[in-house]
Amino acid sequence: MQWKRILSSVVLLPLLILLIQYGGITSFWLVVSLAVVLGTYEFYRMVEVRQLTCYKIPGMILSWLVSCSFLFQNITLISFTLAFASMLVVVYALFSQYPLSTSIISVSTTVFGITYIGWLLSHLVLLRGLEGGQWLIFYLLLIIWAGDTGAFYVGSYIGKHKLAPVISPKKTVEGAIGGLGVSIVTSLIAKNWLLPSWDYKQALMVGSLLAVMGQLGDLGKSIFKRDAGLKDSGNIIPGHGGILDRVDGLLFSTPVLYYYVVGFGGAS
């Protein structure tokens, strides 16, 4: 299993770096939209494993449609598309073959999947579309991956106190603190060559915030996996599990970074 994990990383990581650095917004969106569709499928799969109902195919299509709206970098269009998709799910329920008694569950799980995956993850496209967006993407990935690595190793060696034993038994308080510390150090270092206009106070604050949001995103996804009794959200990436297993830390942190940059500071 370990060799599959390493091989997948060796193959996919250089491709990701090239895509972010040299690919245009359209090519970047294509990859994100593919991740959205696959991630939405994995979420609906967990819903079905739990023996609940959802409109899987319409939900995947509408999640992709929401992702499409992000390509135009227009918040009004994005908001309209999300609202329109939610209404379409209700309209679909009027004509579906599911029993009436499952309508509330089906509509709720379908709309949540569209919002949770399609809307949140597609903020990567908005982030990439900003001036200096490629550096913001690199910065975000470094912070989240550094936090994951720090949490794993610190938790493995000195972790004693369970962070969320019911949701994720292997995660510890010590690991979470270690991950936060590694993310902060990474942010303070990375800002010098990725975001030189930021001062150290800004890098400290944003790095801390993203680290916390990344860990919350990870725990949030674990709630659904634990409820469904699954170890991984999927198996599309050898050695790494599913798409959601790889992007869970980005679901909460990406919108936070985007709205922070738009509201308080640029990337260059």
Q: Using DSSP, what is the number of strands? A: 2
Largest sheet: 2 strands, antiparallel
Strand order of the largest sheet: 1-2
Strand/helix succession = HHHHHHHEEHHH
Number of domains: 2
Total DSSP helices: 10
What class would the helix/strand composition place it in?
Answer: mainly alpha
Please state the overall shape, judged from the principal axes of the Cα atoms: globular
Helix content: over 70%
Which regions contain 5 or more consecutive residues with pLDDT less than 50?
none
Global Rg: 19 Å
Head-to-tail CA distance between termini: 41 Å
Q: How much strand content do the residues show?
A: under 5%
Assembly context of the chains: single chain
* Overall pLDDT confidence: 90
Q: What does it look like?
A:
The chain has two domains: 1-129, no CATH class; 132-268, no CATH class. 77% of the residues lie in helices and 3% in strands. The protein contains ten helices and two strands; from the N terminus they run αααααααββααα. The chain has helices spanning 2-22, 25-49, 56-70, 75-95, 103-121, 123-129, 133-158, 173-194, 200-228, 243-264, and strands spanning 162-164, 168-172. It has a two-stranded antiparallel sheet with strand order 1-2. The relative contact order is 0.13. The mean pLDDT is 90.
